[in-house]
Amino acid sequence: MHGTDSAAKTQVETMALAFWSPSAAIDRVASLRSPWLIQAVILTLQLVVATLAWRFVLEVRIGLLSDSSDRSVLEAAERTFRVAGYLMLIMTPVKLFLWWYIGAGFLHILDVLFNAREQPFSRMFSLAVFASAYSSLSDLHVLLVWYVRGVSAFTSPEALNVPIGLNLIPVIWSSYWYALMGHFNLYEGATTTATAFGFVRLTGSSWIPSYLCIFGAWLALSAIKSMF
């Protein structure tokens, strides 16, 4: 029981330090066997945001259809949107755990390839979980923008793609470049920087190749995600 309380306290302190002293937070991450509390906090945040986002999008889409569709079409569309919302909520924890394990696996492979101070997979997993706390805030940012603007402000589904990154620059973007520039935001940048910084700190690897590989992987992933 004492060990569980100590681990929980360490994770609370790690989350508190994440925005004030990332280096100290990384040092605490290195001592975690399982970041279960950090995972629970991130997962809860994502589920709450996903639920609120689903309800907002549902209102927007039904509102857009209500002016040009009869009652039966509206009911069918609402059922479809609700099913899609349930699937999204189910997939939220699946997606999170998938990215945590993929990220940890990538870092572990990088550690082996660099012949660095090899760390156990569990430590790389803890780092991946910790770093994802920053990017998880991007969805919260978008949600806050939606609710501040209100349902009536969105006249098309595409308008829901609010800019939060370099796509804030007043330039006419194609849909692909608009999506790609949106990935270059404070939240994803902080996640990638924390990952690279933590990797170097934990493994003792040379920072230049480490940063190049991790930021290169982020750029490649962002380019692929922008296609969909």
Give an overview of the whole structure.
The protein is an all-alpha fold and 228 residues long. Helix content is 76%, strand content 0%.
Brief rundown of the structure:
The chain is mainly α. Helices cover 76% and strands 0% of the residues.
Uncertain parts: none
What is the chain-wise order of helices and strands? HHHHHHHH
Number of strands: 0
Mean pLDDT: 91
Oligomer description: single chain
Shape type: globular
Q: How many helices does DSSP assign?
A: 8
Terminal Cα span: 46 Å
Helix content range of the residues, please? over 70%
Beta-strand residue fraction: under 5%
User: How much is the radius of gyration in Å?
Assistant: 20 Å
Structural class: mainly alpha
Topology:
Layout: H1 2-17, H2 22-29, H3 36-66, H4 71-113, H5 121-149, H6 175-183, H7 186-203, H8 207-225
Helix pairs in contact: 1-2, 2-7, 3-4, 3-5, 4-5, 5-7, 7-8
